[in-house]
Amino acid sequence: MKKIYPLKLISVNKDIIWGGTTLGEKYNKPAGKTAEAWELAVHPEGICRIENGEYAGMLLSEYLGSEKFPIMIKLIDARDSLSVQVHPIKTEMWYIVEAEPGAKLVYGLKDRFDGEKFRAALDSGTVTDLLNYVPVKAGDVFFIPKGLVHAIGAGILIAEIQENSNVTYRVYDYGRLKDGVPRELHVDQAMKTIRDFTEEEIEAQRFSRGRKEPGVLADCRYFRTEIAGIDGSADFSEASGFVSVICLEGQGDIDGEKFVKGDSYFIPAGYGGFTVNGVCRLLITTE
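User: That's the sequence. What structure does it adopt?
Assistant: Structure tokens below.
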């Protein structure tokens, strides 16, 4: 039987064309360009390793005894805008950690989806006229059901909590080149996936388990995420499954295991309650 303790995770870091350097400068990641830091990941494209304790160096999948895990959590630093995209099998949520003045993102369409009109706008290069751009600031939350068109804008750093899938249909990419050629688009697949949502429908999914409590960002069928601000000491009761704890600001410790801004801990199911000491802002996610 494996020993159970708070596992400090080593993120899986991705360099993508639109990424910036903020994660290395301010969030305890390697220096240089990092577009995405996968803070909790058991995925074919990347698996976190354990940094501390008896199992240091072990893949999280080896510790869990499984190559499958229900969710993935990323920190995403968008120096430039991400492609306009849609997910066929993934629901996710964005928490805005930082945003430059004037930053905005794409959150759905201005009007109802019309496939013929949308494709014509793609062909003519005017599709941005159909997109719903929303100004953002730190602390904002966006819940993105599968089928909703979206894109992170330039100058935004987010925490993304999602179902464990990386399937993305890229609809529009601003004509950017990678290695001298345009990045692949998936227009036909996206056209079959895009759908409309009312605000009420999105909120119903975001809080489908019906617990809209202070500090809770989402409590949907896939995950429950909250923000906890701590100044001193705070006790957390035992969860029914795992707990992910990511420090977005400050520093402290979890039952003596120290953390700083940008660190990620995985508390395995069965560990029990835990105590956090410090001055910090934490992103806490459970099933």
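The two ends are 23 Å apart (CA to CA).
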